Amino acid sequence: MILFSPLTPLEHAARHILNFLHYDIGLTWAWSIVALTVIVRMVLVPLTVKQIHSMQNLQRYAPQMKEIQKKYKSDRQKQNEELMKFYRENNINPAASCLPMLVQLPVFIALYYALRNFSHEPATDHPGSLSFLHFIPSIADHTTSHWGGFLLLVVYVGSQMASTLFMAATVDKVQRYLFMAMPLVFVFVIAHFPAGLVLYWVTTNLWTVGQGLITRRLVPKTPPPELFKRSSRTPPKDDGTSGNGATPEEPKPAPQPQAGPRKVRRKKKAGRR
Amino acid sequence: MYRVGVGLVWLWRATFGALFPTTCKYHPSCSQYAIDALHQKGLVRGSLLAAWRLLRCNPWSRGGFDPVT
């Protein structure tokens, strides 16, 4: 209730867009939600595409990052600090960022309130069917109120896991598995939401997956850069800026275990000069 | 009073923060930064600092070590 008043404009905005899609474009209410999701995601395309590119770039440095994570296994704070230092040294832009994620939150809340109103107001206020593809009788009802909702929840879990594969910006395996298991826990929370909201979520996840697949196909994978296996001609400070794939050498996973000592050796060499 | 803000951050962490599988590009993360800022600067200034950090946490920024000062 406390949250209600400041969020009323959001709710009205969501309702206006849904009304436009329903009355003017002629979509059913359920497909209006799908269209609304697509509009939101289209607006966010520049943000997410940049994010996926950064993530692909990040994957190239995975062996080195894993090495850092292994080295500071017991001290998470130190591990994070070292990773940040590594990003800076090698001119990496970490993929994950909080803003794109946060932008979706108001849309989600607005839709929640708009759908809640659907179930509270008389049916004459929203003429037209609330069903979706014949298997969900009403998008305003709780997801679990019909067998079709359970099916939607299964699709949600699958799509959330698939989108995690594309968006989880971490090379830490444990963390990745944790993210993958998250929808299995959240499905119990989401089950109490109106089916339309789950529909929003499924659509946004499927968009993420599609976007990820397209971006992966369009952007060729670049070989991992040789960070530490460079000749001592270059001083260590320049390593990061010029290390972005500049070396045509065949990439080898071998340098990972000796990454630390090698760096030190290079520093020594540079010092001797 | 700042506890209200900290409570909201925890609410975020327990719900949407856990749902969207991303890790922050900054250290400390945006949510931890918000908690630290609220502790150190109070509700108003802390919230403003946290909002500014969130705006900076976009795909074009560099990220890195950025504690509340």
In short:
The complex is a heterodimer of chains A (273) and B (69). With 273 residues, chain A is an all-alpha fold.
Structure description:
The complex is a heterodimer of chains A (273) and B (69). Chain A is built from ten helices and no strands. Chain A has 273 residues and is mainly α. Chain A folds into two domains: 4-218, no CATH class; 236-272, no CATH class. The longest helix of chain A is centred in the N-terminal third of the chain and has 31 residues, at 29-59. By secondary structure, chain B is mainly alpha-helical. A two-stranded parallel sheet of chain B has the order 1-2. In chain B, α1 (2-14) crosses α3. The relative contact order of chain B is 0.21. The A-B interface holds A 47-48, 50-51, 54, 80-81, 83-85, 87-88, 93-102, 104-105, 108, 164, 167-170, 175, 179, 182, 186, 189 and B 15-16, 18-30, 54-55, 57-65.
What descriptors fit this protein?
heterodimer, A: 273 residues, mainly alpha, 2 domains, 10 helices, 66% helix, 0% strand, elongated, disordered C terminus, B: 69 residues, two-stranded parallel ribbon, 3 helices, 2 strands, 64% helix, globular
Structural class of chain A: mainly alpha
How many E strands of chain B?
2
Low-confidence stretches of chain B: none
What is the number of beta strands of chain A?
Answer: 0
